[in-house]
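Input (GDSL esterase/lipase):
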Amino acid sequence: MTIDLQVKPNMCTMAFIHHVVALLSIFFPLANSIDYNYPAVFNFGDSNSDTGDLAAGMGFLLGSPNGQNYFKAPTGRFCDGRLIIDFLMDAMDLPFLNPYLDSEGLPNFRKGCNFAAAGSTILPATAASICPFSFGVQVAQFLRFKARALGLIAEGKKLDKYLPTEDYFQKGLYMFDIGQNDLAGAFYSKSLDQILASIPTILVEFETGVKKLYDQGGRNFWIHNTGPLGCLAQNVAKFGTDPSKLDELGCVSSHNQAAKLFNLQLHALSKKLQGQYADANITYVDIYTIKSNLVANYSRYGFEQPIMACCGYGGAPLNYDSRIGCGQTKILNGTSITAKGCNDSTEYINWDGIHYTEAANQYVSSQILTGKYSDPPFSDKMPFLLKLKF
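Output:
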């Protein structure tokens, strides 16, 4: 096993060292793991795994300080650097996924494609939706992508260096991280009971999409559940003004309750699909537990702020103002205000009130790769020959 530590002198803060120590303690037990090769990855999701799709599709520039920590420039990721999907691709020794809708920079889709778009929901988008690329649309985009790719290769266009072959589609990994916006968005217009009652309908839509991908030959599926929505500064600011609405960690209880029930039913659906498709590998990944543990034990992993946003406006305790997003400059109460990034994002779990920092994403990824939070667990039979670079 190789772990390539590329540490710049100015990054050697105590927080960074804590991260390294925590990660090393996680990685070394995997020294005897076998290398598990997927030729390609096809990802579906929302902003948690969007590598630039919404920015390209809707034609807007997600400005700095997004991307400042790793890419040194905005990439369309709602983060100061890499997302969970980026770390997972790195662990599988695959390149970062190009977003489906980004036509610039000569994107290469040979090793996979990312259909995830920020703001997307599992349920079909409405006129009021932030993002038109709901899960059903993403699956439809994949179907077109596959048909177009195979068609071009069959025509002898010599594009097999840039597009997946049939074999790659069959042996590739299909990843899902979506559902957060269906729940979080509903709280603005529905009661908790109404939201809980809507979960089966949401999951019917998800099941329909997964079945379409199975019918297209997909056999390897990773289904990430949703995280503790109540621990996001955005939701605490809006729904947690009454202390009685918060739990012992300072998170909004109702949001986490909805996330837990959603995950319970998503887990049941995953088991059902595994029973239906005996020739498929369906892995359910418990992101909720990983993120909850991180928020609850943040200082153990080198973080100083579990909920407060690094990039925002308003200062402690949340540094979040819904009127002005990370990096934006607006006139508030007659004064020009800019939502700036903090000095050291490695001290923060939350980046902009909604999304995680690169440091937090790195921790979550390392936990996923232990296999302990998966059903079925894979720690004994794979996962990857780790080559994480940080």
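The longest helix spans residues 192-215.
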